[in-house]
Amino acid sequence: MRPTRLSALAAALLLLGAPIGAHAQEATRIQVTGEIIDTWCYYSGVMGGPDAVVGSAHQTCALWCSAGGIPVGLLAEDGTVYMVLRVGDDTESAGGDTLLKLAAHTVEADGMLYQRDGLNYLVVAEVVSDMDITNRNHNDYGNVPSFSIPDPNK
Amino acid sequence: MKHLTACLALIASPLAAQDFSEGSEARSWNLYAEVPAKFDAEVVDVLCTLTGDCPDDCGAGKRQLGLVRAADGALILPLKNSQPAFTGAAVDLAPFCRQTVTVDGLILDDPDLGARNVYLVQTIQAAGADRIKANQWTKDWARNNPDAPGKGPWFRRDPRINEIIATDGYLGLGLEEDRIYIEENF
After folding, report:
1. Residue A75: its chain B contacts at CB < 8 A?
2. Collapsing DSSP states into helix, strand and coil, what is residue A6?
3. Cβ-count burial of A11 within 10 angstroms (0-12 exposed, 13-18 middle, 19+ buried)?
């Protein structure tokens, strides 16, 4: 069927991500494996490059940022970042216990993916596996930031 | 197809050209990808907006809150408040749940990392109210943790953080890994 002007406009609005309805956007079920990261340090570069603000090098800072309510992300193996909004029954994505305990861990997550205005949002139904910290990068980058471990000599 | 192309061109061009830095008084953080941005927006619970799971209080600062920008309907995700203290923005935005406010701060735009529409909010102004700084997180933490032991900033004294470090170490790999690393590097 040839689109009318109205349906073409609606299609254009949908393509641009304009809000059509108030709630409940379309989602896709995905399984994704990656590291639970602190998105502020990763995106801002405030503590260093992206390879330095992940893993064991950044573990303590990841705890600080997660407890401080900074959005937690899942950095997939292909470099895609998913903003985590919920894990199982825990909807406390700003400073909640579940995400705090997963800081810097590599996990396999099963959930629903929502995409909006260039960002990926993940509602995790289940952490299928928790592999603990697998990125042991502290010997490459030190502890990031350098004050994350108190100097025992002071 | 001609109609669709024309509509896309008509609608997309003005949005792509919008500059939200006009009138911004945001303080630079000297970040690679920062762009000052002041705009009107509705404060929303992101989980509610996407899934329809909507508590009345938008999660009372425990859920991530977003800003639906009035000019173009884009959902902006604040990652930070204005405090240089590892603190997010949900506590500062929660009192304005479902209200339209004017925010000022820094957008991060780094396509190489996938940073789009993420934000550091520095000030919030509701209609008819004074502009306030987005700096409530540490005050909220102090109210909720009056007996936290030790000295120094909140992140050195937070009981939940210290419990994890006491078990897993600063590197998260166990106390023996910490001991070896500290011995070699301090």
Report:
1. none
2. helix
3. middle
Would you call A39 and B118 a contact, using CB atoms and an 8 Å cutoff? yes
Q: Do A68 and B165 touch (CB under 8 A)?
A: no
Chain B hits for A50, CB-CB cut-off 8 Å, are 113
Cα B63 to Cα A65, A72, A101, distances in angstroms: 14, 11, 17
As a whole number of angstroms, the distance between CA B86 and CA A144 comes to 13
Return the closest-CA partner of residue B83 out of B25, B26, B133: B133
Residues from chain A contacting residue B63 (CB–CB below 8 Å): 85, 91-94
The residues of chain B scoring below 70 in pLDDT are 1-17
Contact B46 A121 (CB under 8 A): yes
Residue B136's CB is within 10 A of a number of other CB atoms, namely 22
d(CA A96, CA B16): 36
Contact B50 A85 (CB under 8 A): yes
Which positions in chain B touch A9 (Cβ < 8 Å)?
Answer: 7
Whole-angstrom Cα Rg for chain A: 19
Residue numbers in A near B182 (CB within 8 A): 149, 152
Q: How many CB pairs under 8 A join A and B?
A: 215
Which residue would you say has higher pLDDT here, A136 or A15? A136
Query: Can you give the pTM of this predicted structure?
Result: 0.89
User: Is A2 at the interface with chain B, CB within 8 A?
Assistant: no
pLDDT computed for residue A154 by the predictor: 82
What Cα–Cα distance (Å) separates residue B175 from each residue in A74, B165, B178?
26, 9, 5
Query: Nearest CA of chain B to the CA of A61: how many Å?
Result: 8
ipTM of the complex: 0.91
- Write out pLDDT tens, residues B87-136: 999 999 999 999 999 999 999 999 999 999 999 999 999 999 999 999 99
Residue A24's pLDDT is 74
Tokens of B61: 């600062």
Place A48 in a pLDDT band, splitting at 50, 70 and 90. Answer: very high
Quote the mean pLDDT of chain A: 88
